[in-house]
Design a protein that fits this description.
It contains two helices and eight strands; from the N terminus they run H-E-E-E-E-E-E-E-E-H. By secondary structure, the protein is α+β, with helices and mostly antiparallel strands. Strands 1-2-3-4-5-6-7-8 form an eight-stranded antiparallel β-barrel.
Length: 162
Amino acid sequence: MNIRHAALAATAICALTTAGCGASHSQKPALTPVAIGGLPHTLVGEDYNSVTLIETTTQDGNITGTFDTTEIRYNSPEHLRATLTGTVKGSQVTLKASFTLGSTVFNGTLDGNTLTLQVPQQNGQIEDYVLNPGTVDDYNQRVSQLENGGSPSPTAQPSKFY
């Protein structure tokens, strides 16, 4: 770890450990892990007919992890899982999702803890897909909503992963 990353990590740890000082005994909101030099560990994205979970580890700018998506296709849920590899350089992210039947490369931008992927579509267009910090429970709840005929979010956009 270089000195700059060590200083950033130390600053983040100090900020997180002192955040509760002087607080009353009332219930505190959960802290979201801060991504330093990488992606947040768990990201969740959604649109009107799919939910996506990305779990990653970043070391020295190299990303490894998993990509899970559940999409309603032909009125039934389809679950896909891929392994992820990639890189993060500043705010620029490149991910390769390796599915059973092939792979797809996504380029994206990291803005704070929000990852926006540019996802190629079957018609050749590129669409944005936004993922924010979340949990496996968030993903599972949204999948349950999809499977029970509901939409995960009234403002979500159509599915981007084909």
